[in-house]
Amino acid sequence: MLIVQLSDSHLSADPARRYRDVDADTRLASMLARVARYQPDLVVVSGDVSDDGSTASYQRAAASFEALGCPWVWMPGNHDHPATMTEVRALEPVIHSNGWQILLLNTWIEGEEGGRLGEAQLVRLEAQLAGDESPALIVLHHPPVSVDTAWMNEIGLEDRETFWKILGRYDHVQAVLCGHIHHEMTCLHQGVPVMSVPAIAAQFVPDRPDFAVDACAPGGFRLIRLSIDDTQRPRLSTRVEYVPV
Ligand SMILES: [Fe+2]
């Protein structure tokens, strides 16, 4: 099964409005043209689909994802407006495919840039992992780890300690994918790979304490191949593909 993870398209109601000196609609179109070559089985969009939470931005994004002709799901990021988003397309909490479970979490907090899973969702996550032992891939907008960018850590995932306590009680979570930081990152936490994806729109400069944008840096998407091998072990391979601007 081939999944493509996309993130942070930051579209606005007015397609002419630029996001951090970048034409977000053009970036999305060129990204999806490249994604289409792979004919993925599933596209997962990990938040900040919209920059202004407008219906028009969600409708344009949804039409673009739909045109790929494959199943696709999205989840909110801090810039999104979940109620408006779900009027265009519902949020799905879990997808089962090819022996895997893909868990899609919502970290949105009204009026804040940081994220939180919240008690109810953490209870559901624990129940899901306790009740289904198939290999799991978790996707959420905010990274549940510290990153090498001080300002970004201030708007990270509030309740990540509880998240990792839950994951520590199970051994079938194979990887965690996120967006939000607008650049590629990979680390291990409690033995679980945590990976971010570049933004569709403008990239943030990693590894520096203050905020900086590189409007010329290419955006990208993550390709994730999931399977179960002949000995019934889960197999995950992944790489990021960059799309020149
Ligand atoms: Fe973003």
Automatic annotation (TrEMBL):
GO MF entries: hydrolase activity; metal ion binding
Matching Pfam families = Metallophos
Q: Which residues cross the membrane?
A: none
InterPro entries per UniProt: Calcineurin-like_PHP, CNP_phosphodiesterase-III, Metallo-depent_PP-like
Organism domain of life: Bacteria
Q: What keywords are assigned to this protein?
A: Hydrolase, Iron, Metal-binding
Gene3D superfamilies per record: 3.60.21.10
Q: Per the similarity annotation, which family is this?
A: Belongs to the cyclic nucleotide phosphodiesterase class-III family.
What name does UniProt use for this protein?
Answer: Uncharacterized protein
